[in-house]
Protein: 3-oxoacyl-[acyl-carrier-protein] reductase MabA
Amino acid sequence: MALEQFNLDGQVAIVTGAGRGVGAGIAKVLAEAGCTVVGTARTESEIVGTIGEIEAEGGTGLALVADAISREDGERVVGTAMETFGRVDILVNNVGGSTYGRFLDITDEDFRHTFDWCVTSAFIMSQLVAPHMLEAGHGSIVNISSGSARFGIRALAAYCVAKGGLEALTRAMAQELAPKIRVNAIALGSFATAGLQGSLDMMPGSLERMQELTPLHRLGDVADLGRLTVYLCTKDCYATNATFHVDGGIDSNNSPLPIPDY
Structure:
């Protein structure tokens, strides 16, 4: 009986940035729970690969090439989902990122782009799906944040600010869209993705250092984020206006980057 509550059969989820890493992991678990997944990414081969894996496991999905910062692309994604499946029950705003840059070296353009990447993308997609969810009488929006919103990380000031803004957007939307739509955020720690591994490979010993600074002494598994997302999208979930910290217990920066003092 308890596990039946986690069955999402018949629901349709849009997952942005689902071509790889965290987004792909969440998309695959949602599909395992019964969702039809509309996955988006800017790189066609990546999003086709994710949806291909979902379909190979018996799931249903649709791969769309789109830039989540573009309202025109967002309108096309939501319109296609509604035309093809007739509903959108779940939105996972996973798109985000930043470039490394020490505080005094960040340009205005870099700062604005990081904010758009992490916050404006979620604003656009949420604004586009919300009318359909409100008409249906239910919906769940999950924003993917980061522990950097709680504490600063050297050389990632723009990213820290943007993720803090995403959590503020989560709270604002949760208040306005309740009771029909629930809005929550998941704040990540360090997860085992190809992107992170690439950075760690350039710094020998950095993986061990990151694990040492994490109370659970290991990296996270993206499937774990998918399981939490499934819970947040179940019809009887009582959570909204919340940020869930899935970070191995860190309470400060665990980055191994050797950024010197000024």
